[in-house]
Amino acid sequence: xxxxxxxxxxxxxxxxxxxxxxxxxxxxxxxxxxxxxxxxxxxxxxxxxxxxxxxxxxxxxxxxxxxxxxxxxxxxxxxxxxxxxxxxxxxxxxxxxxxxxxxxxxxxxxxxxxxxxxxxxxxxxxxxxxxxxxxxxxxxxxxxxxxxxxxxxxxxxxxxxxxxxxxxxxxxxxxxxxxxxxxxxxxxxxxxxxxxxxxxxxxxxxxxxxxxxxxxxxxxxxxxxxxxxxxxxxxxxxxxxxxxxxxxxxxxxxxxxxxxxxxxxxxxxxxxxxxxxxxxxxxxxxxxxxxxxxxxxxxxxxxxxxxxxxxxxxxxxxxxxxxxxxxxxxxxxxxxxxxxxxxxxxxxxxxxxxxxxxxxxxxxxxxxxxxxxxxxxxxxxxxxxxxxxxxxxxxxxxxxxxxxxxxxxxxxxxxxxxxxxxxxxxxxxxxxxxxxxxxxxxxxxxxxxxxxxxxxxxxxxxxxxxxxxxxxx
Length: 473
What we know:
Layout: H1 23-32, H2 49-58, E1 63-67, H3 71-80, E2 87-91, H4 107-112, E3 129-134, E4 144-148, H5 149-163, E5 170-173, H6 180-183, H7 185-192, E6 195-198, H8 204-214, E7 218-221, H9 223-230, E8 244-248, H10 255-261, E9 266-274, E10 279-283, H11 295-302, E11 307-308, E12 312-318, E13 333-339, E14 345-346, H12 350-356, E15 362-370, E16 376-381, E17 386-388, E18 391-393, H13 395-402, E19 407-416, E20 421-430, H14 435-448
Parallel strand pairs: 1-2, 5-6, 5-7, 7-8, 8-9
Antiparallel strand pairs: 3-4, 4-14, 9-10, 10-11, 12-13, 13-15, 15-16, 17-18, 19-20
Helix pairs in contact: 1-7, 2-3, 5-7, 9-10, 10-11
């Protein structure tokens, strides 16, 4: 299928077949948009020293660019490594009060001492490896996820189409590079000649200032970022007269957050993906017929996980026998993904790679159901499903139900008992000073609305818990 009867003289050659790579976006940007070219550097500052040391050794790092703010963390990790350690190049920021330690070569000097005539070596094969990203490692050592040039390139094309990127795009970088290379956004913006804005500290004030002063049109971030914006004090808020498009991923955003942030001038689209899929590959595409729905139902639909993006071949929900589940808004299965923006595999772990790709699909480990229109709705990670009194309870559903105008954040936590797992407690952070009023006026009614929750022996706890999540998590 798709071949001419006579293909003589129609072979691939250097003129008609060039390996796809997002590095070509950077070359084009440097040539045609020299005033918009910059280097973005970030490091996962929240990993423990031992894990950082493991990643540097497992990935066989040769050079590490380290912000001065995290130089001691890097040095501690290097001290834990066995064998050869990578060269540390320090990236100082005097403008922010971060002067070089003097213990390592500085980035600017390192670049200045390079060969100005050096030409980039682009890949000969688009299946060559481009990037290495590590999973969270919540149940063991993190796995090294390998990206290809082809996959990253096609992701940038799909993102540009789905998100409407153009030369007028002004992108605020919030998602860290260690999260799927900024969800591949950092390669997409140069492709269209857009402008990228970076902030050292992600705060509500910094976000509002970037929107008002720099004209930010797009950014991505976890729901906690939306929560920050929604609950920002009046002193941090700024007026702006344009629409800001937002992709949110990393956790399902409660409908209450979507309802609260839209009137502020933000058009939020939920996105879903994993490290293994170069970031998001599913988005909750807006449908015009939703516009006339009552607000509560409209925001409930916007909180769906969504449908596959243009760069994917197929994303759906299957049962344990890898059969399509009924699209009845009830039958659950595992989200399966197939397409050109699925990882090459796990570095030095062929067994895990084979298991992840069993049956010709990538097994995400995420539990979901599908609506009759094909839209996916994630319910939980398979390892996070709560079994209580014979009932399967979704922690995501519990947390979403708790989210109310008087509740900023909620988290479901299992309490380990001596013989069994007790029903989970729900920890939440009321906005109001009066905890009891927030509890009984807001939360209790929402919990009662859940058909199977809480079980008779469940314990509802209202506590003053600290801020648990970094906005870039």
